[in-house]
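User: Hi! I'm working on a homework problem where we have to compare a predicted structure to a textbook description. Could you give me the structure for the chain below?
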Amino acid sequence: MKNLLLFLGMLTFSTQTFATDFKDYQIFGTYNLGCISKTVEFPLKSKDYQVQIYGEGRNFAHPLMIEYLNSLIKRAKEAKLPPLLIGDLSKKNGGPYGAKSNHASHAIGLDVDLPFDFASPKKSDYELHHPKDRYIVNSKGPNQNFDKKVITLIKLAASDSKVERIFVHPRIKQHLCKTLKGEDRKILQVLRPWFGHRAHMHVRLACPKDSPYCKAQAKVPAGDGCLETETWFLPPDPKAKPVKAQVRKKKQLPPQCKAILKI
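Assistant: Happy to help. Predicted structure tokens:
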């Protein structure tokens, strides 16, 4: 009976909501160099989504992120989108992913990767453990994968007030700057152009108010950012002088993380 109750609890967990007091889930440091005292595990299996397994134990997050994902999954279903694919979140107590990972963030439970692909047809276990990128842009602009479903997903992901910013490839933002109209243009401010991100968007939530040691990024500039995005495609200045590479001092994790991460 105990095992049955546990199993039923796991089935309904993805709809769980949380109180507004998150003092037990203290964040220390920055998105790329920090940790979190306590997280919530995001279930790997559901009829409404599937989770890609780039590495074991990467499906933990702050409760705000769990709420964000639950809301997004619900709204995507209401918008008649196929079941979603969910990428990397964070480790159980956050912290850097390690030298073998290409992640420079995901350290404090407030980041998630959302692929520009869907769990329809349903992915096999092998496909989830060996994810394939589905690019929606190339070096010149959108390809055939940049369709209405993807645009709807981006709009839904970016329209939640919890979102601090979303990293996308510069060509993705450029295309949306040219095509979004009216009220839809409001999402452009949080869409930030960055290297990579051709096959997924990287959603980042703001530091919770009751995590005073969570170090926030600078606020996203006002406006839609479309003129800034165009600067990504300017040719290099022929008069610019070469910049000498500087050796950066290795940054240290906040002292609280040593106990939390047991290092």
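For your comparison, note the following. Residues 1-15 have pLDDT under 50 and may be disordered. The chain has one domain: 28-234. Good luck with the assignment!
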